Amino acid sequence: MSDLSLIRNFSIIAHIDHGKSTLADRFIQICGGLSEREMAAQVLDSMDLERERGITIKAHSVTLHYNAKDGKTYQLNFIDTPGHVDFHYEVSRSLAACEGALLVVDAAQGVEAQSVANCYTAIEQGLEVMPVLNKIDLPQAEPERVAAEIESVIGIDATDAVVCSAKSGLGVEDVLERLIEVIPAPVGEIDAPLQALIIDSWFDNYLGVVSLVRVKQGRIKKGDKVLVKSTGRVHQVDSVGVFNPKHTETADLKAGEVGFIIAGIKDIHGAPVGDTLTLSSTPDVEMLPGFQKVQPQVFAGLFPVSSDDFEDFRDALEKLTLNDAALQYEPESSDALGFGFRIGFLGMLHMEIIQERLEREYDLDLITTAPTVVFEVVKKDGEIIYVDNPSRLPDPALIEEMREPIVRANILVPQDHLGSVITLCVEKRGVQRDMVFLGSQVQVAYDLPMNEVVLDFFDRLKSVSRGYASLDYAFDRFQAARLVRLDVLINNEKVDALALIVHRDNAAFKGRQLVEKMKELIPRQMFDVAIQAAMGGQIVARSTVKALRKNVLAKCYGGDASRKKKLLEKQKAGKKRMKQVGNVEIPQEAFLAVLKVDN
Ligand SMILES: Nc1nc2c(ncn2[C@@H]2O[C@H](COP(=O)(O)OP(=O)(O)OP(=O)(O)O)[C@@H](O)[C@H]2O)c(=O)[nH]1
């Protein structure tokens, strides 16, 4: 298709669960991309984990052909975007490939903070934003109220927003018709030198690196010699094509189109996201503006339970980074846990996903230490260092100032729950920056310490607001704070992997909560186990796990050998995720006890 006026490139902006995947599936069905049977599994969420958790992680694209009521056939390139705040950065990438975005809002729920943030990104990037009110089939749907909310919260006209039910299919064709009308067609010279933006790259075991690109000008076809601008390397194109949603080769990709390129590139660093591709014959083509580099926000140490697994762990991480440019790691050694890696994640969800993949796909048993953010430390000699591991914090005598990362959080909450949300923010050391009443909702902005936000803030926010408050946040600055290291001692031995950096005012309280929680989590052993929390040289809390009196096997009355064996096996399985620290066995949960205390 070379008539650009028949192409529409768009994304869908929606809060989690507002129905983006269901709507996309409907589009695919209407445009005849898949049979009913193939529709059975939601197609866009292609990774197993994504499907299980029902969340979208990687940006994908689908090219569809829609026979519109005006008698013309349009090529619709739909670029998927992830909904979770951890993957916010992928949204702006997907938007860079589009001229427009559908803002899908659940008509029974209303606007949520995440969609507001993504909408602003779209508007900043010059996209046409088209509101769609979904779930109109629900009895509690209030399209007028929600349309008014879109206008007041986001500030775009929603008077004639399309209403639909992605579930029943009602109104979905109207969405497509309106999309063709309001979202501009792409512009670009087909005869100009190739200029293509890499939106995403991933590693496929069979195909090698696959890159999703948006061709801005020119064209690219199989056999072309393509130049990756930032690396300066030239690769021969093996194939180009689109996902419809199945991977389908095409003769070429032209200006205005979105599709994939495979060019024998060995790893994703050879085709960096945000980079520009051109042909080797036109090396002087300008670079397109790329994307902001992704910075991990949360760090944790991961250690194999069995030290024999260290090399397998390293291999697994290498493979995972082929597909996940956001994942960063470096070797770490701990007195308590031996050799492992300190890994940087985008957020807690990202951390859980990586941990699960390592355990499930690579069959590793891992111990994870408590996650932490990065602190900025100014030393007395003027040097500034960044600490992502509490046990590596320099001696307090050498520290001039400690600074913690602060985020600007935007929260949308119905008025009824405003009080409890404010209480929560104050408890988390938040400073209010703004508050705007918008109909039945209130938009509040807080500066909050990132350390308080990444761990459990989102869950707490949901629980104090009965699920109604929503949150969006981004790193703002480092700010001086009275921070100290809280050490944990087990039978008088300091366990480096249990150290935390906390605010001085909360240190004693946190210490007490932590030792109490750990007391519940560390199983009884043959001897007393003393758990202490210390700040500097000073013990701030203490508790004891009492010794076990009876031998478990005594219960078996000697006779039944198979029962005894079963019991031992059960014990062994239970032990799998334990680590021997000194002479005490510490289970995984105890390392994450800080996440479990009700702070
Ligand atoms: N009643 C009703 N339910 C819907 C409608 N559209 C989607 N749902 C349901 O809402 C839930 C969430 O829909 P999804 O399409 O998975 O939501 P999503 O926004 O893609 O979620 P992520 O992939 O996690 O971003 C599912 O249980 C859907 O069946 C609708 O029009 N009406």
Automatic annotation (TrEMBL):
<keyword id="KW-0547">Nucleotide-binding</keyword>
<protein>
    <recommendedName>
        <fullName>Elongation factor 4</fullName>
        <ecNumber>3.6.5.n1</ecNumber>
    </recommendedName>
</protein>
<keyword id="KW-1003">Cell membrane</keyword>
<dbReference type="InterPro" id="IPR004161">
    <property type="entry name" value="EFTu-like_2"/>
</dbReference>
<dbReference type="InterPro" id="IPR006297">
    <property type="entry name" value="EF-4"/>
</dbReference>
<dbReference type="InterPro" id="IPR000795">
    <property type="entry name" value="T_Tr_GTP-bd_dom"/>
</dbReference>
<dbReference type="Pfam" id="PF06421">
    <property type="entry name" value="LepA_C"/>
</dbReference>
<keyword id="KW-0342">GTP-binding</keyword>
<keyword id="KW-0648">Protein biosynthesis</keyword>
<dbReference type="Pfam" id="PF00679">
    <property type="entry name" value="EFG_C"/>
</dbReference>
<feature type="domain" description="Tr-type G">
    <location>
        <begin position="5"/>
        <end position="187"/>
    </location>
</feature>
<keyword id="KW-0251">Elongation factor</keyword>
<comment type="similarity">
    <text>Belongs to the TRAFAC class translation factor GTPase superfamily. Classic translation factor GTPase family. LepA subfamily.</text>
</comment>
<dbReference type="InterPro" id="IPR013842">
    <property type="entry name" value="LepA_CTD"/>
</dbReference>
<dbReference type="InterPro" id="IPR005225">
    <property type="entry name" value="Small_GTP-bd"/>
</dbReference>
<dbReference type="InterPro" id="IPR000640">
    <property type="entry name" value="EFG_V-like"/>
</dbReference>
<keyword id="KW-0378">Hydrolase</keyword>
<dbReference type="InterPro" id="IPR038363">
    <property type="entry name" value="LepA_C_sf"/>
</dbReference>
<dbReference type="Pfam" id="PF00009">
    <property type="entry name" value="GTP_EFTU"/>
</dbReference>
<feature type="binding site">
    <location>
        <begin position="17"/>
        <end position="22"/>
    </location>
    <ligand>
        <name>GTP</name>
    </ligand>
</feature>
<dbReference type="Pfam" id="PF03144">
    <property type="entry name" value="GTP_EFTU_D2"/>
</dbReference>
<keyword id="KW-0472">Membrane</keyword>
<dbReference type="GO" id="GO:0003746">
    <property type="term" value="F:translation elongation factor activity"/>
</dbReference>
<feature type="binding site">
    <location>
        <begin position="134"/>
        <end position="137"/>
    </location>
    <ligand>
        <name>GTP</name>
    </ligand>
</feature>
<dbReference type="InterPro" id="IPR027417">
    <property type="entry name" value="P-loop_NTPase"/>
</dbReference>
<dbReference type="InterPro" id="IPR035654">
    <property type="entry name" value="LepA_IV"/>
</dbReference>
<comment type="function">
    <text>Required for accurate and efficient protein synthesis under certain stress conditions. May act as a fidelity factor of the translation reaction, by catalyzing a one-codon backward translocation of tRNAs on improperly translocated ribosomes. Back-translocation proceeds from a post-translocation (POST) complex to a pre-translocation (PRE) complex, thus giving elongation factor G a second chance to translocate the tRNAs correctly. Binds to ribosomes in a GTP-dependent manner.</text>
</comment>
<dbReference type="InterPro" id="IPR035647">
    <property type="entry name" value="EFG_III/V"/>
</dbReference>
